[in-house]
């Protein structure tokens, strides 16, 4: 959502980059928009499959709950 709002804020600069006085802001807005687009695409579409393929996950939360000591195994120290 932050990238979307930033991109919408930079869109007028990128569209009107040929107007006099915006020789620096227009191309810079295009570069920032390209970076926002590629970073969002990487985070949404590339990194999740890579983490599922190459990630080392210890266990599921159900496994951790099954391995946890029960109340009858606990030792009370006074």
Your description of this structure?
With 78 residues, the chain is mostly helical. Helix content is 65%, strand content 0%. It has helices at 2-15, 25-54, 61-67. α1 runs antiparallel to α2. The longest helix is centred in the middle third of the chain and has 30 residues, at 25-54. The radius of gyration is 25 Å and the shape is rod-shaped. The N and C termini lie far apart (53 Å). The mean pLDDT is 83.
Q: Would you summarize the structure shown here?
A:
The protein is mainly α and 78 residues long. The chain is 65% helix and 0% strand. The mean pLDDT is 83.
Question: Rg to the nearest angstrom?
Answer: 25 Å
The H-and-E topology, N to C, reads as HHH
The best one-word shape is: rod-shaped
What does the average pLDDT come to? Answer: 83
The biggest sheet, with number of strands, parallel, antiparallel or mixed sense and barrel status, is: none
Strand content: under 5%
Percentage of helical residues? Answer: 55-70%
SSE-based structural type: mainly alpha
Number of separate strands: 0
Stretches with pLDDT under 50, minimum 5 residues: none
Tally of DSSP helical segments: 3
Q: In whole angstroms, how far apart are the ends?
A: 53 Å
């Amino acid at each position: 959502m932050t990238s979307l709002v930033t991109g919408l804020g930079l869109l007028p600069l990128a569209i009107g980059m040929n107007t006099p006085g915006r020789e620096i802001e227009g191309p810079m807005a295009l570069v920032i928009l390209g970076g926002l687009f590629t970073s969002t695409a990487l985070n949404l579409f590339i990194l999740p499959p890579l983490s599922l393929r190459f990630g080392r996950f210890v266990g599921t939360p159900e496994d951790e709950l099954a391995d946890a000591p029960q109340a009858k195994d606990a030792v009370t120290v006074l």
